[in-house]
Amino acid sequence: MSTVELDASPSTGAPRGAAQAAPRGHRLRLGDPIFRVLATACGLALAVAMFGLAGVLVYNSWPAISGLGTSVLTTVAWSPVDHQYGALAALAGTFLSTLVAMVIAVPLALVIALLLVELVHPAVARVVGTAIEMLAAIPSIIFGMVGIFVIVPFIQDKLVPWLLSTPLGSLPGIKPGAQFQGGGVSIFTAGVVLAFMVLPYITAVSRDVLKMVPQVTKEAGYGMGSTTWEVMHKISLRYANSGIVGAVFIGLGRALGETMAVAFLIGSLFTSLPHSLFDPGTSIASLIALTFSEATDKIQVSALIELGLILFLITVVFQILAQAWLRRVQRSTGGRA
Amino acid sequence: MNSHRRQAIERGAAGAPLCAVADVRYAPPRRRSVARRKATDLVIKGFSWIGASFGIAVMGFIVWEVVVRGAGALDWAFFTQPTPQDVTSSAGGFANAIVGTIVITGVAALIAIPMGFLGGVYLAEFGRNGRIATGVRMIANVVMGVPSIIVGVFAFAIIVKPLQHYSGFAGSVALAFIMLPVMARTTEDILNLVPNELRESGLAMGAPRWKVTLGVICKAARGGLITGASLAIVRVAGETAPLLFTVLSSPYWMTGLFGPGGFFGGPVANLTKTIYDFSGSPYPQWQELAWGGALVIIIAVLGMNILVRLLFQRGKQW
């Protein structure tokens, strides 16, 4: 039986791999299980790596978790000399900068995604979409450099003085503290740069979700005499609702863990809570980045790893939520489309 | 979908519709003039255009800024000289850092690409929609979203801490960890695009599974696989955070494999960490070198991205 196949395969022009299907049958039977086991092992290695990572983080942060208790999360004092490791300022900075980033990035990403899906010619959409995806390829450190040399001076010299001259300036949380240099290096600046770093992710996912809206449904809307915008927000956006939530979660997860650009821009103030968006602060990731290699005290290293563990858990939760939302969308649209 | 329906029905109690189509049909009549609706439409379209142009302008602006500031630093010395030891020496380049980054990223690729590829083969060919494979897939997606600094902490804890010294290898392991899920998921996606008939005909020829997978399916999908691997490499080549406390950096050339200056033995010069250190220095000539380094990274990363996309667009039959 096998000889027939061997004769047949070269003449049918099958790919070389199949044609070489070696002459001895029983040698091949070993190849398959080995290949299968190898591939499965590599697949499972992914899961092992993830749980290994979690385990290593827990193990290494245990001295801090047991030794410092909740003080890491509830106090502001960060002073390695006095063995005080309160990282509340880092938590606050992480959430505030992420909030600023999301407030800027989400609406921007949505209008861009709508434009790409609904308004422009597919060829144009592809070019524009690629250009925006390229933003995601630019390394974090470059965002940080451009931020510190270009955006910081702009915010400090132009934006903040202008804001303070408008009624907005008297709102709480706007005026930078007198002891800081005018709001350039601040949580707000970090948030602005973060916004552009997560923009491509949110745009790409929302675009894909919006593409899943069935053409017929949209056409029905147009048929009723709706304008483009009415179709967009009453049909497309509503249909793609949960997918967009998934996209936002993905962006959120990215923004929370972004390190280098934030480390450049947020001002590295570990010891006090920000009173204004234009005050310097710190984030979990940048606190780790800036102090880890200088940490000599064992408990400090452990406290930093504990912060890493917290950041890890937060991002994992957001990722899982995002995946779950997006899976649900796929299933529901897959059923309807 | 059921819960969707239920939600829709609950919303329906407030006068909202049961599904998107009906939305337009049954929307409570609001008297708005056609002119006003058209004006709203125009305003929103305007915003979309402004938003999209803004996004692209930012991207262009960043690249432009790096080009303008970095072009001056790129001379012969930049690519041949090691990083300057002190401020007084005017000569100096980033050659040792460029070599270091290539080696660190290369070793990471050697670890992660075969493993990620096989992992992807498992997901696409063996695990498919089984419970375990679904779990692995979910975990791979989650790992892709883990902040790179945490991967750095991980590599520090499992390699740097037990060995008591920084090393290029620790950085490679961190980067490999980041690449692994990217490679696996891309491989899976690409293999899934290969038509099933190809699999079936290979198997019908009597070829064993592994030969069908490697010799037929992967061969058919090789363009996409190469694209995926290159994008995975490019993705980690610009990473800084995982290297901060695994590789550190060094002003010297890497001296072989072992010993304090070697790949396994000590800190290794690398592009991103050197850029980070130099851009934070107060010396203008060092800052200029840092911009030069940034330009090199941008050219490498964007160039590779564009190249790979062009190739992929052409070979996108599957």
Features:
A: 337 residues, mainly alpha, MetI-like fold, 2 strands, 1% strand, B: 318 residues, 71% helix, globular
Strand and helix layout:
The complex is a heterodimer of chains A (337) and B (318).
Chain A: H1 2-11, H2 16-19, H3 25-68, H4 71-74, E1 78-79, E2 84-85, H5 88-119, H6 122-137, H7 140-165, H8 187-211, H9 215-223, H10 228-239, H11 241-257, H12 260-265, H13 284-291, H14 298-336
Antiparallel strand pairs in A: 1-2
Chain B: H1 2-13, H2 20-26, H3 34-70, H4 76-80, H5 95-127, H6 131-144, H7 148-163, H8 168-193, H9 196-204, H10 209-220, H11 222-237, H12 271-279, H13 284-314
Unreliable segments of chain A (pLDDT under 50, ≥5 consecutive)? 1-22
Largest interface: A-B, 109 and 108 residues
At CATH level 2, the architecture of the largest domain in chain B is Orthogonal Bundle
Instruction: Give the rounded overall mean pLDDT of chain A.
Output: 82
End-to-end Cα distance of chain B, whole Å, is 30 Å
Q: CATH superfamily of the largest domain in chain B, called what?
A: MetI-like
CATH architecture of chain A: Orthogonal Bundle
CATH superfamily of chain A: MetI-like
Q: What fraction of the residues of chain B are assigned to beta strands by DSSP?
A: under 5%
Estimate the global geometry of chain A from the Cα principal axes.
flat
The ordered string of helix (H) and strand (E) elements of chain A is: HHHHEEHHHHHHHHHH
Beta-strand share of residues of chain A: under 5%
Number of helices of chain B: 13
Radius of gyration of chain A: 26 Å
Shape label of chain B: globular
Structural class of chain B: mainly alpha
Q: Report the CATH C-level class of chain A.
A: Mainly Alpha
CATH fold group of chain A: MetI-like fold
Report the end-to-end length of chain A measured between terminal Cα atoms. 46 Å
Major beta sheet, strand line-up of chain A: 1-2
Mean pLDDT of chain B: 83
